[in-house]
Structures
1.
Amino acid sequence: MPIFTHPDLAPITRHARAMYSSRLLIAAVHHLHAFEQLAAGPLAPSDLQARLGLRERPAMVLFPALCAMEMWAYDASGKLQLTALGQHLTQKARPTLTEYLGLEKNDAGVIEMAEWLLNDGPQLSGVSGTAYVKEGTGPSPMDEPTTARALTLALAGRAECLAPIVANKLPKHNGHLLDVAGGTGYFSYEWLLVNPQATATVFDRPAVLAVAAELLEKFCQSGRPGVAGVRERVKFQPGDMLTDPLPSTDILLAASLFHDWPTYTCQQLARRFAAALRPEGELWIHDAFLNDELDGPLAVTDYSAQLFWVTKGRAYSRREYRGWLREAGLIPSMESFATQMDYGLIWAKNSSKG
Ligand SMILES: C[S@@+](CC[C@H](N)C(=O)[O-])C[C@H]1O[C@@H](n2cnc3c(N)ncnc32)[C@H](O)[C@@H]1O
């Protein structure tokens, strides 16, 4: 059976996530009054954040998004200012579309977005925990079999689409791949197919790995050349990546992982992952990246708002990732590869030679 051939599916996810731009824009104008704050002149991002009463995460979701929408821009001194377009969303401008946008200000999604921005999440935290996140002793949907299955299978199509591309960009190796928070495991299965001597560990929550094991069976029955030999080279390791020992590895893959977590947890994870690398080891990150200037691209600022809505994280820039990787003692490459669906790969190598 041949591997799927398909166009880049990015237009589908872009259209699906576009509603987050609308919510952010209308909430910023009508609930946070953020455009009025800038009407008097440019402000340093930290000053604007303080005036709006926002924590770091919502500010880093909202400000890049409004820049990507070309409503705001950075001036030469790094302050945020209204663009010629954005001026028309202030009360004093003529013409102004402020009231026209106000027709949607009571939309449930807009109101909820405003609440999330102001609280850095929902006012009442959910009793069953946050999607795709297991932290501490609190409940997690990833530990409840029904929700773990639904959330894992929801990502299966994306992983099936991206994993063959990622597998071909990762290093060819006869050693070991650790697929942390590996979900379906597809990134490991595809990489093992192109590395016939290698082994892999898919590390995740037990209820997620039960689904991954079923998907491995299906993968091995697909009839593609070489798939029969994949099953025996995969190990499933249940655990908590934040606290449990991680197996040592030549390549560590963190796919769509950091973006579920706040900055301080990303720094902690980078240190844990660096410590799991063998002397010549490499840490690879597959994710969607903000521009280093934190002003787009629009597809990623929409995605960042979606992540803000459902997880504890947001999208980060390559510069932010490379900072954490350096702090963790790794040497980040300045290379970056695009994959598909607005994702890309960056990587860093272990500085220790053993
Ligand atoms: C967004 S999914 C990414 C899955 C996969 N890497 C992919 O790209 O399809 C995040 C994964 O992190 C896992 N996860 C969350 N918290 C975890 C923890 N503390 N320890 C291990 N895995 C965790 C979830 O169960 C989930 O499978």
2.
Amino acid sequence: MNQLETIKENVQTYGLTDGICRGENLIYSEKTLAGLENIFVDEDKRKAMNQSEVVYRVEAYFPVAEGTEAGLFFGTSRINPGQVGDEYFMTQGHFHQKANRGEFYWGIKGEGVLLLMDMERNTRAEKVFPGSLHYIPGFTGHRLVNTGKEELTVGACWPSDAGHNYGDIREQGFSKGVFNRNGVPVLEDIEKR
Ligand SMILES: O=P(O)(O)OC[C@H]1O[C@](O)(CO)[C@@H](O)[C@@H]1O
Ligand SMILES: [Fe+2]
């Protein structure tokens, strides 16, 4: 048998242009408007919308068990175009349970904004587009916002022991949000709840 025949076919693939993961150990989740209570500024508008509307889906590849130290997870977040009032569709946003864990995001398709908020609630924004690369430092809340008219597809890699802390964001939100002002995405302050 020659050497080439002993090389195992890769069971895991990743679409470079569509971010679709194929193979084993894949986990799928989706968030509808019903699951995003108190995330958008205009809660009344959210409640008045079709609660089963999908805002985003995540497919993740977990090669090791959740919580494994020094392992890595991979994920693709797919945020649909849309708004709640003037606020663009976005992910819940989170800090990491192990707060010092960082993460990489990179833009694959569409256009959007990555909101990054430190522990003192200072929020900055980075433009997301195909090929954009974003380092999310530890102690930083992160949220993806779709400001375009098509799906915003973003890849991610993060430590398998990072975990997700949604509580702080659910209670206090981000200090800034992204709103459609006459067709232009604008970053604006949001007063603390
Ligand atoms: O958990 P959120 O804030 O809804 O973000 C969606 C996903 O984005 C990631 O940060 C990367 O896919 C996942 O960890 C997370 O589940
Ligand atoms: Fe994260």
3.
Amino acid sequence: MDKGYLLLEDGERFEGILIGDDDLSTGEVVFNTSMTGYQEILTDPSYAGQIMTFCYPLIGNYGVNHLDDESQNVHVSGVIISDLCSKPNHYASFQTFADYLKNEGVPCLAGVDTRELVKKIRNNGTMKGVITKNPASFSSFNDLSLFDTSLVPQVSTNVVKTYEGNGPHVALIDYGYKKSILNALLEEGCKVTVMPYCTTYLQICQYNPDGVLLSNGPGDPTALSKWLPEIKSITKKYPTLGICLGHQLIALAYGANTDQLPFGHRGGNHPIKEIETGKVWITSQNHGYVVTEQSINDDEFMITYKNVNDQSIEGLKHRKYPIESVQFHPEAHPGPIDTYPIFKQFLQNINQTGEMTYAYAKEYS
Ligand SMILES: NC(=O)CC[C@H](N)C(=O)O
């Protein structure tokens, strides 16, 4: 088996065994603390451009199945693990973790002291990294072409697709949506039209939805600045729910700012507090950016949830219009489903305020 290396931007190097694909992999090195759900994590398009370090020490023990994919491909650019299980045991498993990554063309470094690596990221923040078989051949972290920043166009669909249902019609704007978000809407009986990230307000109107969901997605939300006026117009007309990147885009569209967290929130045990009730929910999270509290216009938006660990903003609600957004993932997969009712709340918003929304829109324009 070949040796491989993780080279970090600050010059430190971690050694391991190279499994999966043996090509060069570049990305932002991040970590996820979830104890299960590696397949969902690998296939979540929000992780595009990132090298994922799994904190849980044993990976691959239940293999890979046909149910857990959150999209059609693995989106992480590389994987770092401690112990690899090569003899998985699960009735639904059809492939090993290593073969799966090889087929998907994604390099993985196994046998790494992930505790040391994670401690380093926690202390110094996320940084760029490279997985390679041949460290001498890697030239420079300054070669920006290796670290792509236009990630959403790469993961979003370019065709409009409708899933039939008898309930309200939701336009799901695809910045890199997770299948579980679509499934949650379909389970609630919605008709769902998935639309590309670059869909304009007028294009959405042609489909006449009852509500709009702005999905999760990879990268820095400010990379989508060009689309903010469209997003603002959409939210002024339709009841809107934003999830993760979608939440950040709503905040940006209304003039707030986003900032980068030191090492992100990625895991299945992030506590958030509902400001109105004081209740704490445990959530699934995966984000590196966050809406800055001071930048939120208090007259327009109220903060609905805050992170219990670092007090960062976890949710916003417009004071007048049916616009809500959450930084965490109510669809879970992987992680707890405590906040799944957010989807039901969204549908209530659609049903109760559908008529009013049009009145608001008139008044607003
Ligand atoms: N899951 C997401 O939508 C992630 C949002 C954004 N890319 C971030 O890292 O903050």
